[in-house]
Structure formats: C-alpha cells, structure tokens
C-alpha cells in the first residue's frame, strides 16, 4: 500500500477570523448554501450574510437541527440543488458541519467549514456521520476530499460553554495513542493508505500541547476572551487532532464509541467523553509500563474528564451490556489496529476495570 496524507486546503485561525469569510467565499462563486445550526443562525446569521454580501456572495440558508439522518440530508440536498449553489458554507457544531459535508459531496463543490465550538475535529475532516430516527449510528460517509477552507474564529469559540471544550479535549487526547497502534500494526488510515510518519509526529504534538496547556485553555472557555493557551489548544483539538486521526488512523479508543452507547446511560454521552474513557481502556489493554496511564488520569482530573463508565453516566452496567458493547466495538474496523487480537471476554474485563 502507498502512504497517503490528507488535509484541508487552507486552515485559518484567530480572533476575528470570521471577518475573512466573504473574501474566501468569493473565490469559489456567487451563490452559497449556508448549512447552519438553527440556534447559531439566530446569533451569527445576519453577520455572515452581511460578510458574504459585501463580496457579492448570495446565501441560501439551510438550517439544521437534530440528528443528521438520510432523510434530513436528502431534503437539504434538494434545496441546495434547486438553488444552483457554487459552494457550501457550513457553520455550527459537528452536526451542522456533517450536514454541510453531505451537501457539498452531492453538489461536487467547495466546502468552507466554520466551527462555533471546539468539541471535536470535524471541521478539518472529510468524514461525516449519519444516524437513524432513533439516534443509532447508521454509517460513516466520506467526501472525496477534505474541506477547502477551515475558518476558526477563536473569539466565537471562546463564547461556547466549557462543556463543549472539555469534550474536545477528550476527543483529541487519544489521537497520539491510536495513530501509534495503527502504524505499529499495519493498519490503514482514513484514506485507505499507510499512515505516514508526518501524521504520527502531528499526533504527538497534539498530545504535548494538550498536556501542557489544556487546563489553562479550559479556564478561558466560555469567557469570550481567547488566551494564548486557548489558541494553542484549539489548534491542537481541531487541526492537529484532525490530521492525526485521518492520516494517522484510529484504534480501540474510537472503536469503543460503537459499543459504549449500548450501555444504559451512555447513549447521550458526548462523543469526546466516550473517547476519553475509551482511551483509558485502550491503555489498560496495552499494559503500558511508561507511567502514561497515571499521567493521563491525573490530567483528566485537572480538566474534568471522566475516568470511569460511572462518571460517564453508566450505573452498574450488566455483564450482558458490557458483552454487547464489546461485540460492537470489535466489529469496528479500527479495533483491528492493536498489538494483539482481542476477544469479547478480554474487552469486557477491561471495561469492568473502568466501570
């Protein structure tokens, strides 16, 4: 297999970055579908319309709320096609960005992502997730290429509640360890290629940044005032984490997000918090002797991440629930990226140790 590295066309970050949206949008045409979280539309919609209008770009607003289902995506795609758009601008959290990716894929056009929270690394990736009407994961789909522009206004992100930022820390902290397992065991990354060394080095840098600045950055979350530490950690959570997982690959920590929602109390737990607990389970299974598990547990306590299933929301999960979670986890593609083959019994025992 060939080594493959993928990335967005351009990444722009800083306080006031949103002001550049109109200029970048005008590079790709004069009509844009604005796929936007309905709440965010009320807060930022008029500003975005004015910024784009100043550069001759007209918007067709496509508000998003609730889960991204095949039915909701079909409706958005139909509206975008009828409007004859040249590009898609996706604004909001992970669900709005995922919807924007689905529309951009259907229209074969450029995508500009504008995250309003830093709860995960969706802004940079080509992946998007579809659910059914009962919040069950249906599929992980892919655009042909990553977003053309990722525009990260840290002044906007700093107004979001700290809970979103904490979830972003949980999602990003795993990437070094998952990429490490993927590369070491012949796994494939999100481009179906061999993970290049570059991806591992980026994932390593992501970990170092989070451990050094995560707690200080979290203190600024919700204040509306991004600090230098906040800027560094946002870059780690969105750009480094995104490049690290897509080009570096994933392992047990993310595979567990397929199984954990089947445990009572965990279906609504934020993705990033599920990953955080999943990473501790993965490190347990690795039987590491480098002290990293203790280091991360201490850091989790500093930033308020859960260290057990109970802290995540599960109340005394049964053996049957853990077995079902383990079964679904091991069926995920990423679970094969590990030092040794795992079975349900071994994974259940590790989950029980972190119950």
Q: How would you sum up this structure in a few lines?
A:
By secondary structure, this protein is α/β, with parallel strands linked by helices.
What can you tell me about this protein's structure?
By secondary structure, the chain is α/β, with parallel strands linked by helices. The protein has 2 domains: 10-158, Rossmann fold, CATH 3.40.50; 251-354, Up-down Bundle (Dehydroquinate synthase-like, alpha domain), CATH 1.20.1090. Helices cover 50% and strands 13% of the residues. A 6-stranded parallel sheet has the order 1-8-5-4-2-3, sandwiched between helices. The chain has a two-stranded antiparallel sheet with strand order 6-7. β4 (87-92), α4 (94-107) and β5 form a beta-alpha-beta unit. α14 (319-331) packs across α15 (344-353). 52% of the residues are buried.
Structural class: alpha/beta
Biggest pleated sheet:
6 strands, parallel
Q: Which stretches are low in confidence, meaning pLDDT under 50 for 5 or more residues running?
A: none
User: What's the SSE pattern?
Assistant: EHEHEHEHEEEEHHHHHHHHHHH
| The CATH C-level class name of the largest domain | Alpha Beta
Q: Main sheet: which strands, in order across?
A: 1-8-5-4-2-3
According to CATH, the fold-level topology of the largest domain is: Rossmann fold
Estimate nothing, just give the exact number of structural domains.
Answer: 2
Helix-residue proportion = 40-55%
Q: What characteristic shape results from the CA principal axes?
A: globular
Q: How much is the average pLDDT?
A: 96
Distance between the termini: 39 Å
The strand count comes to 8
> What share of residues are in beta strands?
5-15%
Number of helices in the DSSP assignment: 15
CATH architecture of the largest domain: 3-Layer(aba) Sandwich
Output the radius of gyration. 20 Å
């Amino acid at each position: 297999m060939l080594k493959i590295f993928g990335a967005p066309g351009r990444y722009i970050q800083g306080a006031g970055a949103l002001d550049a949206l109109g200029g970048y949008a005008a590079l790709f045409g004069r009509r844009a579908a604005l796929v936007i979280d309905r709440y965010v539309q009320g807060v930022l919609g008029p500003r975005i319309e004015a910024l784009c209008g100043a550069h001759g770009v007209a918007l067709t607003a496509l508000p998003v709320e609730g889960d991204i289902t095949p039915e909701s995506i079909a409706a958005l795609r139909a509206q975008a096609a009828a409007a004859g758009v040249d590009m898609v601008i996706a604004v909001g959290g992970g669900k709005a960005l995922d919807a924007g990716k689905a529309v951009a894929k259907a229209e074969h056009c450029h995508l500009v992502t504008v995250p309003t929270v830093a709860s995960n690394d969706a802004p940079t990736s080509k992946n998007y997730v579809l659910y059914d009407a009962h919040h069950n994961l249906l599929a992980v789909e892919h655009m042909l290429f990553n977003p053309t522009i990722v525009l990260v206004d840290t002044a906007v992100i700093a107004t979001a509640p700290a809970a979103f930022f904490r979830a972003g820390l949980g999602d990003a902290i795993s990437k070094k360890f998952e990429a490490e397992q993927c590369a070491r065991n012949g796994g494939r990354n999100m481009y179906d290629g061999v993970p290049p060394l570059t991806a591992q080095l980026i994932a390593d840098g992501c970990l170092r940044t989070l451990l050094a600045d995560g707690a200080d950055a979290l203190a600024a979350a919700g204040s509306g005032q991004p600090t230098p530490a906040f800027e560094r950690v946002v870059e780690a959570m969105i750009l480094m984490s995104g490049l690290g997982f897509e080009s570096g690959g994933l392992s047990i920590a993310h595979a567990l997000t397929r199984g954990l929602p089947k445990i009572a109390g965990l279906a609504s737990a934020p993705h990033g918090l599920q990953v955080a607990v999943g990473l501790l389970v993965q490190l347990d299974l690795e039987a590491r002797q480098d002290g990293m598990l203790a280091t991360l547990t201490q850091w989790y306590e500093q930033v308020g991440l859960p260290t057990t299933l109970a802290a995540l929301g599960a109340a005394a999960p049964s053996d049957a629930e853990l077995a079902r979670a383990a079964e679904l986890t091991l069926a995920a593609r990423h679970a094969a990226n590990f030092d040794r083959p795992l079975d349900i019994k071994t994974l259940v025992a590790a989950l029980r140790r972190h119950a």
